[in-house]
Amino acid sequence: MKEQSIKQPPPLENPINGRTSLQMYDLNVDEAVEEIRARGARRVVIQLPDGLKPLGFELCREIEAKTGVEVYLTSDPCYGACDLAWEAMNLLQAELTVHCGHAEIPHLNDGRTIYLEARSNVSIEKPLKEALKMVEGVRVGLLATVQHIHLLERASRILRKLGKEVYVGRAGGKLRYDGQVLGCDFTAATSISEKVDFYLVIAGGVFHAVGVEASTGKPAIAVDPYLGRAVKVSDRVEKLMKIRMATRGRMLEAKRIGVLVSLKPGQMRVGFARKIKSMLEREGKECVLIAGRELTGLNLNSFSEIDLFINTACPRIAWDDREGFMKPILNAEEAVSFLESKQKRLGIG
């Protein structure tokens, strides 16, 4: 097979040295320092996902020492590059946000956000070889989250030595790198679905592998470098599909529906929410739009008169967090697909 040229990030230099989480990731702090100096910022917000917050104190002190700017760590949750701290930046009158751990989503950056990607430096050989024992086939679709995207070349070499044909999907949609997966964008996976027998997804946990298998219909194995193991996700996908089907049925039965709208910059889809509300009202449903930054069961369960929620924000809310909801919750794309199919059959539109 002809060697593929994979769109990859440049190697990192000058990683922070430290303890615990710091030992698992490389961060090019000097890149952020140079950008802060170049822009003449006086006040900066640092935003980290929970897994990287152990880096926060040392990172804050280092940036303060090297730039002389006033730095704020935001304690708010951060779930991805769609979850930007623009509100905190505006309220604190800061000029820049240093967003750690994620890759920039094309066309989302307003020019005030510096993306400081975190790259894992853990080994993938053991879980990669373990994964091949779980599935049959020669043609492998290779994917990774951004923390492991730099490992795709190494993984490709290992797999080819073991006699596999390796395919890496091209970047598109919200993706910056070839082979990258997001919880809301599996373009790199679907772009090669007809060429592969199965997928290997290098990521912490199983969420992204579940999404890949659900969106392509091909087997996916989660290759977890942190735990040093591989996990087959077919049982989880089957369970997810059953829950989806059951929730669609509950949507037909529901009389009062809440359509959720995220206030996070990369998740806010007001027009889409209005479209769904209109479609549901043509079905005779009573609907309300509910906006919030943290669309959790804890924040929404008090709306006790609502029978079901439709989620236009991060799909992970309806997948991973559904057990926290007292009422059924369905992702917007699934709801629209189901409603459009039903209304087409009935000649409504």
Which structural class is indicated by helix and strand composition? alpha/beta
So, CATH architecture of the largest domain? 3-Layer(aba) Sandwich
Shape: flat
Rg over C-alpha atoms, rounded to the nearest angstrom: 22 Å
Query: Can you count the beta strands?
Result: 15
Helical percent range?
25-40%
Number of helices: 12
Give the distance, in angstroms, between the N- and C-terminal Cα atoms. Answer: 48 Å
The helix/strand order is EHEHEHEEEHEHEHEHEEHEHEHEHEH
Query: What would you give as the CATH superfamily of the largest domain?
Result: Diphthamide synthesis DPH1/DPH2 domain 2
In percent, how much strand structure appears in the residues?
A: 15-25%
If you had to describe this structure to a student in words, what would you say it looks like?
There is one protein chain. By secondary structure, the protein is α/β, with parallel strands linked by helices. It folds into 3 domains: 29-116, Rossmann fold (3-Layer(aba) Sandwich); 125-232, Diphthamide synthesis DPH1/DPH2 domain 2 (Rossmann fold, 3-Layer(aba) Sandwich); 243-344, Diphthamide synthesis DPH1/DPH2 domain 3 (Rossmann fold, 3-Layer(aba) Sandwich). The protein is 34% helix and 19% strand. It has 12 helices and 15 strands. It has helices at residues 29-39, 56-67, 86-91, 125-132, 152-161, 187-190, 207-216, 234-253, 270-282, 297-300, 316-319, 332-346, and strands spanning 25-26, 43-47, 70-73, 96-100, 113-116, 119-120, 139-144, 165-167, 198-202, 220-224, 229-232, 256-262, 286-292, 308-311, 329-331. Strands 8-7-9-10-11 form a 5-stranded mixed sheet, sandwiched between helices. Strands 3-2-4-5 form a 4-stranded parallel sheet. The protein has a 4-stranded parallel sheet with strand order 13-12-14-15. β12 (256-262), α9 (270-282) and β13 form a beta-alpha-beta unit. α9 packs parallel to α12 (332-346). The radius of gyration is 22 Å and the shape is flat.
